Amino acid sequence: MVTSRMRSIRSELETRWMARPTVILDEVDSTNRWLKNQQGHGEASHGMAVWADAQTEGRGRLGRTWHSPPGSNIYTSVLLCPPHNRLSGVLSLVAGVAVCDAVRRAVGLDARMKWPNDAVIQGRKFCGILVEAGADPSPWAIVGIGVNVTGPVDPALVHAVSLSEARDGLVSREDLWRTLMSTLEYAYDQWIAQGDTWVVRAWTRMNVTLGQEVQVKRPGDAPWVGTAESIDVDGGLWVVAHGRREKVISGEVSIRLADGRYAPESF
Ligand code: BTN
Questions:
Q1: Measured CA angle at 254 (ends 250, 256), to 5 deg
Q2: Is the bond preceding residue 152 a cis peptide, omega within 30 degrees?
Q3: pLDDT tier at 263 (50, 70, 90 boundaries)?
Q4: Rounded to whole angstroms, how far apart are CA atoms 110 and 167?
Q5: What is the pLDDT, as a whole number, of residue 267?
Q6: Which residues line ligand 1 (CB under 6 A)?
Q7: Are 254 and 62 in contact (CB under 8 A)?
Q8: Which of the residues 20, 108, 118, 146 has the least number of beta carbons within 10 Å of its own beta carbon?
Q9: Checking phi first, is residue 228 left (phi over 0); if not, alpha (psi -120 to 50) or beta?
Q10: Given the DSSP bridges, would you call strands 22-28 and 49-55 parallel, antiparallel or unpaired?
């Protein structure tokens, strides 16, 4: 159920344009799908946000579903309309930087990014980001963010954690959502003002993937192991091994550490 604080969260926003307006829903199939539909009908503009208490068909990367029970978590999407000359692939990095920043400020935990779009604490995933973008009639991107705040987490995911489990104490999803809208606005504005390099640097500072031996699993191909070297401005990951240097694109692969672990517990 939508709490009364969730219902009045708009009055607490500290943003200039992000999450203005915001629509709060009890239940929806998917916040990304809902916002895309609004945008398709010309009923959404840059910065519009939707936050649902529950999703019946929450969507994840690579065609997966996103466990979305009511009463405890954040399922939110925002519409961003970048200028024509900017690559919207960078927006998943922008969102990752904003999520980690928000969790540090609002919850006090050391959140990090696992390439491409998973936010982790102590090697366990608490947040996933799904960006869907297009260029018709002008560039748009829907940035969907799912955060396990007080759980319960997806029982099928052994490496999942909620923020309240990781902190061993209460976490307010309303405080976190409000902070997230501020950090998202800040990161987007920095990207527009300073360019891709700002985002790549900020993401690199808060990641757990670069420098690690990783296993690249592409559907239909044999997995291979290499060192995660750097991140590209389009969000791709450069992996090197025995003279082979390949850019891995987020839509097609999953990454594990070479020893099979999901992500390092410390760094
Ligand atoms: C992933 O890790 O696979 C990405 C998960 C993204 C989930 C969020 S929840 C809000 C938004 N609506 C969706 O249907 N998906 C995203």
A1: 130
A2: yes
A3: confident
A4: 10
A5: 66
A6: 30-32, 55, 58-61, 64, 66, 75-77, 117-118, 128-130, 144-146
A7: yes
A8: 108
A9: beta
A10: parallel
Task: Tokens 């102590």: give the residue.
Answer: 122
Task: Give all strands (DSSP E) within 16-61, no chain letters.
Answer: 22-28, 49-55
Distance CA 102, CA 104 (A): 5
The Cα–Cα gap between 56 and 9 comes to 23
**Where does residue 168 rank: exposed (0-12), middle (13-18), buried (19+ CB within 10 A)?**
exposed
pLDDT band per the 50, 70, 90 thresholds, residue 65: very high
What confidence score (pLDDT) does residue 70 get? 96
Q: Which atom of ligand 1 lies closest to the CA of 31?
A: 12
Among 59, 99, 125, which is best to mutate for testing ligand 1, by the most ligand atoms less than 8 A from CB?
A: 59
Residue 242 CA to ligand 1 center (angstroms) comes to 35
pLDDT at 82 over 70: yes
Residues forming beta bridges with residue 241, ordered by sequence position: 244
Q: How far away, in angstroms, is 129 Cα from ligand 1 center?
A: 6
Strands of 74-80's sheet, edge to edge?
22-28, 49-55, 74-80, 140-147, 124-134, 118-121, 112-114
- Which neighbouring-strand residues pair with 110? none
* 243 CA to centre of ligand 1 in angstroms: 36
Residue range 145-162, pLDDT digits in tens:
999 999 778 888 889 999
Tokens at residue 266, please? 């410390």
Residue 244's pLDDT is what?
85
Residue with tokens 């009639």: 137
